[in-house]
Amino acid sequence: MEVTGAQYRSLEVRWLSLFLSCLLIVSSMVPGWEVKYFFLLLLPWFYLLRGVDIYRPDGVIVFFYYLYSISYPTFLLLSGDLAKIAPLLDMSNLGFAGIFFSVFLFFPKENNYKEIKAAIGFYEFLGIYSRWVVPLLVVFACLLVTMQGLTSKREINDSAGLLSYINRLVFISYIYVSMYVSYLALTKKKFRKEFLWFFLLAMFVLLVIGERDVVFRYAFVVVLFWFSVNGRFRSLYYVFGFVFILLALSISQQAKNIFLTGGLYEASQTGLKWMFYNEFASGSRNLHQILLYGDIFGDVNLIWGDIVRFFSILNLNENAQSATEWYNKYYRNFYDFSGSSGWGFGILPELYYSLGGFGVFFGFASLMAITTFLYNFFWGSIGGRVFVILHYAAFIYSLRADFANLLGLSIKWGAFSIFLAYIAYSIVAKKGAGKYVRS
Question: Which of 11, 111, 288, 367 holds its CA 20 to 30 A away from the CA of 278?
Fold first, then answer.
């Protein structure tokens, strides 16, 4: 049987992933930090620049894990702080090795679903909700914040009552906005106009409420969906994206709540250190603290606790505690870490703390295998594709959060929210329910 060019390229990339996995494992056996950092800095680019599309799991996860794993070690090197940097790099490299090994074993299919069957009536229903209800929700939430005199995201998150429910509703509603705008990207009807309008509305949420997740997740879903149906992604975009995302995240950190505070938050770092000390730094910063201060609480099974925490939404365990809560309430308090916010935990330190280096490798290999399965199974429809991209976002966010957040964002906020939209449509649908369109 003759091997096609696409099959040969897939085979080449697959064996490259195994080679990179082996190199990263070997780097953990080499003394000193120089080789470890050199491998972490350069090896992922050998994979990304082979032309892997950003919407594929091996493209998007490798790229964002790279951002999370390289930022804090680079910050430490720029600061001249080399304490425990070698084991920190070891764990980051083992996580990458697990991801690449999973790609070798379970290589994502070459899905060419650029023509997607979509029910016109359902997306017209989402369009009506997005255009009329979502702006009112955003304005109402912003008015509640200003009327209550809240001045920071921490105060907003700690507030109870109506504002708490409205904020959650805005978050869920933007999942429906993402589905609607993705449909427009498929049909090429008023896509740019609607995308920009909802992006500006999400920016308003950022500048008033201080919630970056809404604007970033919206842009993340729609941009990846757009590339998946247009197929115009170039390898060089990874380089531009690396610089742009680092800058955008650092700037947005200072611009949160600017309409309430009247100015930018003061940056804690300057120059290149400012660029690398942001949201992505938290992915390795918390592991660095564990390595510096050590294990004082014994064998705490944080992963099992996160699973129980996820099922607590069904009131199976009212006292469940996530790994992030454990880290902030006990570990940080014991060692008197500075600050009161911005410290998630992360699945990398969670895997290391619970299972050691082998757990890091096996854990990331397993998570990547699950992500690849979802991609292969659900990629053929708009709803399925948006769900998979939301799972990507949950995986990426969990790099600074924990397994409870991964499960909650992917299943409760992702899959269940989309399921609710279909249920609501099936109840009210009359006209257009049986009509379909293909791009």
Answer: 367
